[in-house]
């Protein structure tokens, strides 16, 4: 999913130079991918049986691979848009199925195991960035897409035997009774994750371009690889911290750090700031997903993974639209606005902390000096 969804970012400059893709058309292709992601997330919400289907998982892996392999076969922006739409939908289904499976099958295992699996998205980003860097000097945009398809096929084969969750998500039971307070907690979480989708995608779309404007040529591409490398261990780290401190508090911390990382390139054009921004962004964006989705599971809100992913994907569609009027002045104002949106997400996470039911759900997320033996190791 990390390769299939995000390889477009490093390939985009090649398509501008070699395939005649305009900046506006490139943005439209990105929006098509985000819209497809929303379609896939909504499918998982409205038809929860899809999230438990091995056939849907395997079909999505094959579809994702096929869309990458088909990109070099045409120069039609309409066909490219359709392919990126399908890639987004397949990516969302893979993500929702994998996360639901992790939270279901690994609930009696240490929390860092699902975290390392989340890190696979970061590994895919780093691998795709390195792949394009290696090919761009010796080949063209078509070879980059085919190489990405081959890499995705190998990773799809490795994940072929993943077993989705066994049964529908249980209704809210035990701990706090379902009602207004539970809906309030989940509502604050939903708003926070939605706003994160808006702010994160602005950085994910324009961070490399913004860095490339004021830094040597290798810094922009290298920063994208660094984002992926920083993301690999981040989810496992945040999950481990979640065993000692409350997830809402960690969510607030991660969002605040991410906002600082997004704003950094807009405040200074130094190479050190650019690379530091990549590290801070990479170290938090998957961690935020890990914490938010695990918190939804902790609340035992029905279909929380699919609902949160749907809200997140709506935010991803809105993000580029919100900052579009600012892009005529460069990327700095867009990044600053994105940082403010992520700070607003942090405020929503702070609201989530108020009277949060740490005793409720699948695990105990309070201080480790008061663990529940049967629950402390659950994700």
Structure commentary:
By secondary structure, the protein is an all-alpha fold. Helix content is 74%, strand content 0%. It contains 13 helices and no strands. The longest helix has 35 residues, at 180-214. The two termini are 22 Å apart. The model is unreliable at 171-178 and 361-379 (pLDDT under 50).
Which spans have pLDDT < 50 for at least 5 consecutive residues?
Answer: 171-178, 361-379
Largest sheet: none
Number of strands: 0
Structural class determined from secondary elements: mainly alpha
What radius of gyration results from the CA coordinates?
A: 20 Å
Mean pLDDT: 83
Share of residues in strands: under 5%
> How far apart are the first and last residues' alpha carbons, in Å?
22 Å
Note the overall shape. Answer: globular
List the total number of helices. Answer: 13
Secondary-structure element order, N to C: HHHHHHHHHHHHH
Helix content: over 70%
């Amino acid at each position: 999913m990390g390769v299939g969804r995000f390889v477009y970012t490093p390939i985009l400059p090649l398509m501008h130079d070699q395939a005649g893709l305009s900046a506006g058309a490139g943005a439209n292709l990105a929006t098509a991918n985000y819209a497809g992601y929303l379609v896939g997330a909504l499918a998982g919400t409205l038809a929860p049986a899809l999230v438990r289907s091995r056939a849907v998982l395997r079909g999505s892996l094959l579809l994702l691979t096929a869309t990458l392999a088909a990109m070099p076969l045409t120069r039609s922006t309409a066909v490219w848009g359709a392919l990126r739409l399908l890639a987004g939908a397949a990516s969302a289904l893979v993500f929702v199925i994998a996360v639901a499976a992790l939270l279901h099958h690994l609930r009696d295992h240490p929390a860092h195991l699902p975290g390392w699996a989340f890190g696979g998205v970061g590994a895919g980003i780093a691998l795709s960035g390195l792949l394009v860097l290696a090919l761009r000097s010796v080949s063209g945009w078509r070879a980059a897409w085919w190489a990405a398809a081959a890499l995705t096929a190998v990773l799809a084969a490795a994940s072929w035997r993943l077993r989705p969750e066994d049964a529908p998500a249980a209704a809210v039971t035990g701990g706090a009774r379902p009602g207004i307070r539970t809906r309030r907690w989940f509502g604050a979480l939903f708003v926070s994750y939605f706003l994160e989708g808006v702010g994160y995608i602005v950085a994910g779309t324009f961070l490399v371009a913004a860095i490339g404007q004021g830094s040597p040529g290798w810094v922009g591409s290298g920063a994208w690889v660094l984002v992926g490398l920083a993301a690999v261990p981040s989810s496992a780290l945040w999950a481990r911290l979640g065993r000692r401190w409350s997830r809402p508090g960690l969510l607030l911390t991660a969002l605040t750090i991410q906002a600082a990382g997004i704003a950094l390139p807009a405040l200074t054009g130094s190479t050190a700031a650019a690379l530091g921004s990549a590290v801070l962004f990479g170290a938090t964006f998957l961690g935020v997903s890990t914490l938010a989705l695990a918190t939804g599971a902790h609340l035992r809100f029905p279909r929380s993974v699919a609902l949160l992913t749907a809200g997140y994907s709506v935010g991803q569609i809105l993000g580029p639209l919100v900052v579009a009027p600012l892009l005529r002045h460069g990327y700095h104002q867009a990044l600053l606005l994105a940082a403010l949106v992520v700070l607003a997400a942090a405020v929503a996470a702070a609201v989530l902390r108020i009277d949060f039911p740490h005793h409720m759900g699948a695990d105990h997320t309070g201080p480790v000096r008061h663990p529940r033996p049967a629950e402390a190791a659950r994700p």
